[in-house]
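Now for today's protein.

===
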Amino acid sequence: MNPTMHSSEDDLVFLDEPEHDEFSAASKPYSSWRVMIIDDDPDVHSATTFALGSLEIQHRPLSFLHAYSAEEARNILKTETDIAIILLDVVMEQEDAGLQLVNYIRKTLQLADVRIILRTGQPGYAPEIDAIRDYDINDYKTKSELTRTKLYTAVTSAIRSYEQICSISASRRGLETIISASTELMGTHGLHNFASGVLAQITGLLALNTEGFVCARQTPLGKDTDVEELRVIAATPQFAGLLNQTIPNDSHQADFDVVKRSLAEGKHIFGTSATAIYFNNVAKKDFTLYLDTGLHLNEMDERLLDVFCGNVSVGLDNIVLNSRLHNYAFYDLLTGLSNRLKLLQTLNETLGSDLKTRSALSLIDIDHFAETNDALGHQFGDLLLSSVAQRLLKTFGHQCHLARVGSDTFALLGDYDLVCPDKILALFNAPFDVDRQEVQLTATIGLIKLDEYDGDGSEALKDTNIALKRAKTHQRGGFEYFTRNMGVEIRERVLLMHALRAAFEHERLFLVYQPQIDMVTGKVLGAEALLRWKTDEGKFVPPDQFIPIAEYSGLIVDIGEWVLRSACHELVHLRSLGYTNFQMAINVSQAQFSHPLFMETLHKALAETKAPPQFVELEITESMAMKDPELLIKTLHQIKQLGVSISIDDFGTGFSSLSHLQKLDVDKLKIDRAFVNDIRLDANEGSIAKMIVQLGQNLGLAIIAEGVENKMQADTLVSFGCHLAQGYLYAKPLTRDDLHVWLKQKESP
């Protein structure tokens, strides 16, 4: 049949031409290509559908929408979607009605994908080049030239163009979705939130309405890096019961089998009823996303999925790095417990909440851990700490916050009925099983109740540490609660320590010299160099206050070196003034004396000042002599080889044994002022001062008494056989200038 239309110039004419079997293939079960015919002539509609009705393109048939005016077309286009081609008559209600409709389609409705073929029986109304250029028209034909083959060709070409444009648009939208998803995922914190975001984004990307979960291989904190667990870290509601659960290695559930296979093989698994999508990163911290549906992806979807997985893998790198940094920042990698920083964060939150009224903080210090660590090795020490951490977790983990805040110090924060000495110390009654050995430990604890505490977390931790130190000082294996008096005392000590350091650095410390004389002849034998501290306000700080602080802080080593050098300089200066038999006594502290560089310091002081060693005397306390006898004997021998003499200060207060005293290579004993003060008019032969004098004489040692303040004390000491003394009866401690004046006066007749 050869249909021909002759009704007008607008007629659509199909000239005689052969039938083409390739366009009459059997219908396939695919959706159709939608073609909209817009023309005011009903015959054109009929002829077009007749000509194209049997056509299939890409195995999909055509279906038709009809509009008989531009206005009707506008109304249809507002609601209909997925139109592939519009066959549009140029001249309808008005001469340019078709072109105005094109403008409406492109600019108002923003339909960029649909292909438009203009048809007209009056080509003069629409310049071909201008129309195609200005209105994004796919083709422009006069009805008289549109044979069936040319119409087939134009429609086929337009549909292929439409398909490509749709593919490009879908790819663009997919990429936009991926970029948006990636941006959103990059803003998440933590692997759990990231995995939940991936689960939500991928179902949106693939337009799926499905359930699923995310599994990841993880190494638990405090465990060996070779130990990994397969754990569900994100889940949709259907799988919410699996969240944070560990999947056993022997599990044979179909869901888990797909997941384990995906992780083992490092690839996606597309099953008929389930899908596992694999994500990896450079740190090999991979995970798999399980979906409870099979996926049949076209080539474009597969490419989009690959791009999405690549972006997620980059994001996973960042999340793993951030997670690792977070663990380093907030958790102890040995035990898996919180660290000091995390404890402070939780402590501040507690102090700012209602929990404060019933909370307590405790620091638990393992007694003698350093010795155990040194004796049995650091690896054993690490196992021991892990064992202690596990026992604390087992007892308090679900109700309290635990942390490791020092090498062998743990913190416990929680309700004060739980965080109490009895419950904590009871944990150490049973031995710990460490590396197949039973180890019995004790612990000392400091505690603070937070109900009336006004400070912040760092202050609370500091005050608890004060209580712990007090407990360690008083009784190992015991406990102390923090009190305000402790805080005042320690803060005053710290302030004094900082002030002492500043005074030393700014040369506010100075020496005074108290003369030592022969009470029988009145001759000056020498002087003891004494350290003094005068503040900027003109106030003197007593030595018994700042010397212990200097020793505690370690500053005494530097101060002691300065005292030694300054006293030697003054000795040399006095010798230049003619006092050639003058002896300088210099105090040495325990910290200074036991310092490994002490002998080197002494050598340098003598060499650089050129002080004669035989006129230098070092004073050590009796308590120092008792602390480390072997070190003392060795060091005393080295000192005596230099020619320097040794005196034991405050003798009688340290309870040293006579046998121990006999081993010490010393030259002089100094009677403590407390025993001199005990001398009264009715003194008897059994006084301690007399006993010390007799002891010294029996050992062949010189004896000197300090703190002699009146003639009665002096006479009594002389009667005991002690001829040497220093004290206010003869002279108070003098500055170097005053000492020079005093010595000149002693020389005057």
